Amino acid sequence: MADNTKKTILVTGGAGALGSVMCKRYLDEGHRVICVDNLMKTRDTQNINSFLHHPHFRFIKHDIIEPIDFPNEKIDWIFNLACPVSCISLQVDPIHTMLSCTQGVAHMLELARKHKATILQASSADIYGEMGDHPFRETDDYASNANSLSARSCYEKGKRSAETLLMDHHRLYGTDYKIARIFNTAGPHTQMTDGRIPSVFIYNALGNRDIVVYGDGSATRCFVHVEDQVEGLDRLMRKEGFHGPVNIGSTEEVTVKHLAEEIIRKTGSKSKIIYEKADDAPLFRKPDTTLAHAELGWKQTKSLDELLDDMIAHYRDVGLPESRILVFATTYYPDGGKAEERLAMLAREMPETEFHVITSKFRRGLKSIEHMDNVTVYRIGFGFHFDKFLLPLFGAFKAQSLDRTLHFRFMWSLMASYGALAGVILKLLGSRASFIIAHHASEVYATPWKRKVAAYVESKADHTYHGEEMQETNELLDRVRQKYKEMTMQQEGKLIRPV
What we know:
- The chain folds into two domains: 8-189 and 225-248 and 286-302, NAD(P)-binding Rossmann-like Domain (Rossmann fold); 324-491, 3-Layer(aba) Sandwich (Rossmann fold), CATH 3.40.50.2000.
- Helix content is 37%, strand content 18%.
- The chain contains 15 helices and 20 strands.
- Strands 3-2-1-4-5-6-11 form a seven-stranded parallel sheet, with helices on both faces. It has a seven-stranded mixed sheet with strand order 16-17-15-14-18-19-20, with helices on both faces. Strands 7-10 form a two-stranded parallel sheet.
- α12 packs across α13 (418-428).
């Protein structure tokens, strides 16, 4: 199977959790790698930033449902990984998901034919539908029992159509193809907001949110580490005369309930497991990997325990989306009112979160920057009461400067006043952070112009907490954590839960 020839390798979906690991592997081996990704799911190039400027790497932002060519390149291998996988992503635009599996695959096949390249299609365990009385085998003839009318069908039937396209292209044009049926794969670079398990369980556990299990928790899954998956795909691509399809996945089965319990234990979380109505996902999904072992000499090397440890460590390292919060407050410690007191309470109850508070200096003798546990205060002005009038403009510029390095996903304003105006200006300057306004019941807007300002900034906010919602500490914490999750999904264009 050894092939040390330096190749030009195209990886579609190359900025994703699987594709980025594959890109890095081939760069490390000295190959030229072209990564094509529309960034619809990842939103940015974070997974490939470490080698984005590598001399043998090229990134192209492109959607494969549109044609693409490389007139100045000779492509040797094509790994087609481009397609959303998680239900909360693929169901946002199911027509696009189906087109990615059909029109997009057709474009990649034409590219393979033109360049006389070998194309490997990342198929899926979903093509099998519901498992019978044994693990899925490539020769199972009941693979067509997946429902063609369900909300998941755009992916399940799309992946089946992709396999058909590869086979027909091979029959008509002799295109060299490979089909890998990929079972549940995860790793450190799987988005924590991906929506699939185990990433969504870890995300909620680290945020001390409830972990939602659909059904009674008896459904089982088998998870393979992304590094093992990439090894399997590489072996398949290099194996001459073998096309597949071949299952690549773990045979280490775990119930969804036990997985949730284990993640809570490993993270030391305060999360509770709650059970909701089951969706239409298959109850069991275990591969028979006999063929992969016989033809490719492949077997998994990393356990589920290692996979979870790797993911938890990485998620803790990068921090939750809400791990850094920007706050605007007209005054703050040692000056402040009830709303400021509630913020200080939240900071004490959420030690895992950094609060960056931009406020007016208000009086002399105060430091411009002051650190207090997980709160950093940035004071604007000269130490006089009129500093609050400087806060909207100078506070926004200070926030913009901080945002360049801290990349805030959420910003708060205590009351809809001068600080809130800074938040509005920051949004106008291009910030994509979700904007939340918090009122305390004791706060009032005594004059008509203040009421008009309050009404204006509230119209620009993504969410407002009113006085009565700011009272009970535990309830407020739960509401805030859940709201962070909802807003994160909105930012990333995902559904809150599968259809």
